Amino acid sequence: MIYKNDRAKWIGGLLCVILLYSLFYVLFADRAYTYNIPRKIRHVIKFGTTVAVYLVGTYHLGQLKDKWMSTLWHFIHISLLCTITAIGIIDWTFGMVNIKTKEIAASMQEFLISPVLYFAMGLVNQRYKSEK
Hints:
Elements lengths: L3 H26 L9 H24 L4 H28 L4 H15 L1 H17 L1
Protein backbone atom coordinates (compact mmCIF):
# COMPACT_ATOMS: atom_id res chain seq x y z
CA MET A 1 0.00 0.00 0.00
CA ILE A 2 1.14 3.53 -0.64
CA TYR A 3 2.27 5.22 2.60
CA LYS A 4 -0.37 7.47 4.20
CA ASN A 5 1.43 10.70 3.35
CA ASP A 6 2.33 9.38 -0.09
CA ARG A 7 -1.28 8.37 -0.63
CA ALA A 8 -2.49 11.95 -0.08
CA LYS A 9 0.16 13.26 -2.50
CA TRP A 10 -0.79 10.64 -5.08
CA ILE A 11 -4.51 11.39 -4.75
CA GLY A 12 -3.81 15.11 -5.08
CA GLY A 13 -1.98 14.45 -8.33
CA LEU A 14 -4.78 12.21 -9.59
CA LEU A 15 -7.36 14.90 -8.88
CA CYS A 16 -5.27 17.50 -10.74
CA VAL A 17 -4.90 15.20 -13.77
CA ILE A 18 -8.65 14.50 -13.76
CA LEU A 19 -9.34 18.25 -13.58
CA LEU A 20 -7.02 19.05 -16.50
CA TYR A 21 -8.44 16.18 -18.55
CA SER A 22 -12.02 17.27 -17.86
CA LEU A 23 -11.32 20.93 -18.62
CA PHE A 24 -9.65 19.96 -21.90
CA TYR A 25 -12.74 18.05 -23.03
CA VAL A 26 -15.38 20.41 -21.64
CA LEU A 27 -13.77 23.62 -22.91
CA PHE A 28 -12.02 22.44 -26.06
CA ALA A 29 -12.24 18.94 -27.51
CA ASP A 30 -15.99 18.33 -27.28
CA ARG A 31 -17.03 21.76 -28.54
CA ALA A 32 -18.58 22.49 -31.92
CA TYR A 33 -16.40 25.58 -32.41
CA THR A 34 -13.15 23.61 -32.09
CA TYR A 35 -12.84 23.15 -35.85
CA ASN A 36 -13.19 26.91 -36.38
CA ILE A 37 -9.95 27.40 -34.43
CA PRO A 38 -6.89 27.49 -36.71
CA ARG A 39 -5.11 24.11 -36.91
CA LYS A 40 -1.85 25.37 -35.43
CA ILE A 41 -3.65 26.91 -32.44
CA ARG A 42 -5.44 23.58 -31.86
CA HIS A 43 -2.04 21.85 -31.92
CA VAL A 44 -0.66 24.32 -29.36
CA ILE A 45 -3.68 23.82 -27.06
CA LYS A 46 -3.34 20.03 -27.23
CA PHE A 47 0.42 20.17 -26.69
CA GLY A 48 0.03 22.63 -23.81
CA THR A 49 -2.52 20.40 -22.11
CA THR A 50 -0.22 17.40 -22.49
CA VAL A 51 2.73 19.29 -21.02
CA ALA A 52 0.54 20.54 -18.14
CA VAL A 53 -0.49 16.96 -17.26
CA TYR A 54 3.15 15.88 -17.50
CA LEU A 55 4.23 18.66 -15.11
CA VAL A 56 1.48 17.82 -12.61
CA GLY A 57 2.47 14.16 -12.64
CA THR A 58 6.15 15.05 -12.38
CA TYR A 59 5.50 17.24 -9.35
CA HIS A 60 3.26 14.80 -7.49
CA LEU A 61 5.07 11.58 -8.35
CA GLY A 62 8.44 13.20 -7.67
CA GLN A 63 7.41 13.72 -4.04
CA LEU A 64 6.75 10.02 -3.44
CA LYS A 65 9.16 7.58 -1.85
CA ASP A 66 8.79 5.17 -4.78
CA LYS A 67 11.04 6.75 -7.39
CA TRP A 68 10.30 4.11 -10.06
CA MET A 69 6.89 5.71 -10.64
CA SER A 70 8.44 9.08 -11.41
CA THR A 71 11.05 7.47 -13.67
CA LEU A 72 8.41 5.54 -15.61
CA TRP A 73 6.25 8.68 -15.87
CA HIS A 74 9.18 10.61 -17.37
CA PHE A 75 10.08 7.83 -19.79
CA ILE A 76 6.54 7.38 -21.13
CA HIS A 77 5.78 11.09 -21.43
CA ILE A 78 9.09 12.20 -22.89
CA SER A 79 9.22 9.43 -25.48
CA LEU A 80 5.63 9.95 -26.63
CA LEU A 81 5.92 13.76 -26.50
CA CYS A 82 9.00 13.56 -28.72
CA THR A 83 7.09 11.35 -31.16
CA ILE A 84 4.07 13.68 -31.21
CA THR A 85 6.33 16.71 -31.60
CA ALA A 86 8.17 15.12 -34.52
CA ILE A 87 4.87 14.34 -36.24
CA GLY A 88 3.69 17.90 -35.57
CA ILE A 89 6.88 19.45 -36.95
CA ILE A 90 6.62 17.36 -40.11
CA ASP A 91 2.96 18.32 -40.48
CA TRP A 92 3.61 22.03 -39.90
CA THR A 93 6.67 22.13 -42.16
CA PHE A 94 5.72 19.88 -45.04
CA GLY A 95 2.02 19.22 -44.51
CA MET A 96 2.43 15.65 -45.70
CA VAL A 97 1.31 13.64 -42.68
CA ASN A 98 -1.40 11.16 -43.62
CA ILE A 99 -4.62 10.66 -41.67
CA LYS A 100 -3.45 7.38 -40.04
CA THR A 101 -0.36 9.10 -38.60
CA LYS A 102 -2.53 11.95 -37.30
CA GLU A 103 -4.85 9.42 -35.65
CA ILE A 104 -1.88 7.71 -34.00
CA ALA A 105 -0.63 11.07 -32.70
CA ALA A 106 -4.12 11.88 -31.38
CA SER A 107 -4.25 8.51 -29.61
CA MET A 108 -0.86 9.12 -28.03
CA GLN A 109 -1.97 12.55 -26.84
CA GLU A 110 -5.18 11.08 -25.42
CA PHE A 111 -3.19 8.41 -23.56
CA LEU A 112 -0.82 11.01 -22.09
CA ILE A 113 -3.52 13.32 -20.73
CA SER A 114 -5.84 10.57 -19.56
CA PRO A 115 -5.91 9.89 -15.80
CA VAL A 116 -5.75 6.17 -16.61
CA LEU A 117 -1.93 6.14 -16.84
CA TYR A 118 -1.51 7.93 -13.51
CA PHE A 119 -4.14 5.74 -11.84
CA ALA A 120 -2.67 2.51 -13.25
CA MET A 121 0.76 3.42 -11.91
CA GLY A 122 -0.76 3.84 -8.46
CA LEU A 123 -2.51 0.47 -8.71
CA VAL A 124 0.68 -1.29 -9.81
CA ASN A 125 2.55 0.35 -6.94
CA GLN A 126 -0.11 -0.71 -4.44
CA ARG A 127 -0.02 -4.28 -5.76
CA TYR A 128 3.78 -4.31 -5.64
CA LYS A 129 3.76 -3.06 -2.02
CA SER A 130 1.19 -5.66 -0.91
CA GLU A 131 3.33 -8.52 -2.28
CA LYS A 132 6.39 -7.47 -0.26
